[in-house]
Write a structure and sequence with these properties.
Number of strands: 12
CATH architecture of the largest domain: 3-Layer(aba) Sandwich
Distance between the termini: 49 Å
Radius of gyration: 25 Å
Number of helices: 11
CATH topology of the largest domain: D-Maltodextrin-Binding Protein, domain 2
Number of domains: 3
Shape: elongated
Structural class: alpha/beta
Helix content: 40-55%
Largest sheet: 5 strands, mixed
């Protein structure tokens, strides 16, 4: 296909339905078309896209390799177009019944959800929150495919069709138990490197970028324990002599209740951004706008 202006965009709906049903007759029935019309549409698609698209098998039609590469961007494009053309609906929090899905890390769940759930329970009792794990680059895929309404966390560039709004800046600090050999004295780079550490390994996160920064600086920590998540870290710090490097938000939540000592890192690292992101297709959606405004009110600085 050389020019989109020469392409019948209605055929894209047929193409997506064929991808879902793997049958010309089933696609025709789903779209209210005759089977000859659906067969004619498939023939036009094959000519325009210069590919067979589907090949007959004993159990329907199988997509070609090219069709498999088209499936996700086709679904994303049609979903975005449908959202853009849909009439703007009102959203009344007090009477709304809707589920919002947030892509966030385990640490994000610990920090954002308690306050958010309380506020939504008071303002919009019919609203349900769900979460999916925030990953890179899967956050962009989840947003564009509609699997998540918002992504919240230490986000990287998610592409040209994603809006982004900063909530606050975050730094990392160290947690140790009271009576730890490093407590009560300035933490130097040498003392930090020589201490025994528990390290959180969370691929694609802001914390993982800290681990990479330390490696680039040549800081070689004595790593006694590696963890895939943050939940156990404060409890390990309370019961051992291990040093835990964590985001400030986790330190603020756990240091007081667990009686931990907070130490500043002895390195000049710039703070990193905690933000929220959403796909262009829901920019005008009243419910999404309400949820974004709530996050700004509760967490933005």
């Amino acid at each position: 296909m050389r020019d989109l202006r020469d392409f019948d965009l209605n055929l894209l709906v047929l193409l997506q339905t064929l991808q879902r049903t793997r049958s010309v007759s089933a696609a025709a029935q789903a779209l209210g078309l005759s089977q000859p019309a659906a067969s004619s549409g498939l023939k036009r698609l094959r000519a325009a896209l210069e590919d067979q698209l589907f090949t007959p098998t004993g159990r329907g039609m199988a997509p070609t390799a090219y069709m498999q590469t088209l499936a996700t961007p086709l679904a994303t494009a049609l979903a975005a177009l449908g959202e853009a053309l849909a009439p703007v609906q009102r959203f009344e929090p007090a009477t709304a019944h809707r589920t919002f899905t947030l892509a966030m890390s385990e640490l994000g769940e610990m920090f954002f959800l308690p306050r958010l759930v309380v506020r939504i329970g008071a303002e919009a009792p019919g609203v349900t929150l769900a979460t999916v794990r925030l990953g890179v680059p899967s956050a962009a895929d989840d947003l564009m495919a509609g699997r998540a309404d918002l992504a919240v966390g230490a986000l990287v560039d998610l592409g040209p069709n994603v809006f982004r709004r900063r909530l606050f800046l975050q730094r990392n600090v160290c947690l140790v138990r009271p009576g730890h050999p490093l407590a009560g004295k300035p933490l130097t780079a040498r003392r930090y490197a020589e201490a025994r550490h528990a390290v959180i390994v969370s691929e694609g996160s802001g914390h993982e970028r800290l681990n990479q920064q330390l490696e680039r600086m040549g800081v070689r920590r004595h790593v006694a324990l590696r963890l895939p998540h943050f939940a156990a870290a404060p409890y390990i710090a309370r019961s051992t002599d291990l040093v835990i490097t964590v985001p400030e938000t986790l330190a603020e939540q756990t240091a007081g209740p667990l009686g931990l000592v907070v130490l500043r890192l002895p390195f000049r690292f710039p703070p990193y951004e905690i933000s929220m992101a959403w796909r262009a297709g829901v920019q005008r959606d009243p419910g999404n706008r309400w949820l974004r405004a709530l996050l700004v009110e509760l967490f933005a600085t």
